[in-house]
Fold this sequence. Notes:
The chain has ten helices and 17 strands. It is 32% helix and 22% strand.
Amino acid sequence: MTTELYPRERVGLVREAAAKAGLGAVLLTPGPDLRYVTGYDAKELERLTCLVVPAEGEAFLVVPRLELPAAEVSPAGSLGVELVPWDETDDPYALVARRLPSGLPKVGVADRMWAVMALRFRAAMPAAEQVAAGGVLRGLRIRKSAAEVAALREAGEAIDRVHRRVPGLLAAGRTEREVARDIADAIVAEGHSRVDFVIVGSGPNGANPHAEPSDRVIRAGEPVVVDIGGTMPSGYCSDSTRNYCVGEPPAEYLAYYAVLEEAQRASSAAVRPGTTPEAVDAAGRDVIAAAGYGEHFFHRTGHGIGLESHEDPYIVSGNREPLEPGMAFSIEPGIYPGPHGARIEDIVVCTEDGFDPLNVTERGLVIVG
C-alpha cells in the first residue's frame, strides 16, 4: 500500500481503467472523484473545472483562470498534469472537445457532475455516448491504501474525542438542538474542517435513525442516540454512533440494548477477507431476529466510508462481493421499537486476517447524571 494520500500514479490508473472499460476519456468535475485522483478540493462553481483523462494521451486539468492559483498550490499542481486555464469569454466545453480525438464513441462523466455541465459536454461532443464514470473509479476507491487508512483512523480518533465530551453536554431540560449545536462546535474543535451531520435523538426521536435535532426537551430517564460525523482537512470522513441516557434507563430499553451490543459484536467478528457484506449483515441481524426484535431493525448494517461518508461497499443483504483488505465501512445495527431506539456504530477496516476498528470509545450505554 502506498504511503502517500494522493499519489501521482492514480492518474495513470484511471487511464488504464478507462481504456479497459472502453471509454475514450473520463471527465471529472469537482467532487470526491476529482479529489481522489488529484488531491484538488476544487470549488463547485458554474465555471467549469474538469480533469480530462483520455484513454490514450496525457491528462489535463481545465480550470477557470481565476482558480488557477488554487489549482497550482493544490496537490494537483505537483502531479505533472498540464493545467489549462480558460478565460471568461472562452467556451471550456469546446476547449475540452478540441483537445480530445474527434468522434470518441463513449466518455465517462463524473457521477456528481452537474446536469447542466453534462448537457454542455453532450452538445460539444455529440457523437460521444455519456456513461457514469463511477464504475471506473470504484475499483480504485473501494480499497483504501495505508495512507487512507491512517487518515480514516485520524478521523475516527477525532470523533471519539467528541463522544467523550457528550456526557458533559447532555442534561435533562436541554433541547436536542442546544446539545447538537455544542456537539457541532466540538467536532470542529477536535480537528474536523467541516461538520457533516449531528443526530441527537432523545426518547421517541431515537427511533428515527435520521432524526433532525429539534426543540424537544430531553427528559430524565430518556435514552439519547448521538450519531455524528465530519470531514477532516485530509478530506476523509468520520462517523460514529453512541448511546446515552440521562438518568436511569427503562428496563425494556436495557433488555434490547444488550441484544444490540451482541449483534454489533457478531457483525464485526464476521469481517474478514472473502466474507461477503451480505454475511456480515446477516451475522448481526440474526442475533436481533432471534431475540424477537427483527422487525425493529429496518436498515442495512453499514456503508463504506472515505472521501464520502457513504460510499462502496454497502453492508447489506444481496451484496455478495467478497470483502478485501483495505475496505473500510461502518458496522451499525439498530433496534427501534418506538418509545425509544438505539444504534451502535463503528468504522472498521478489513485486514488480512480480520478487522481493525477505527472507533474505540465504550460501546455500552453511558449513563449521564
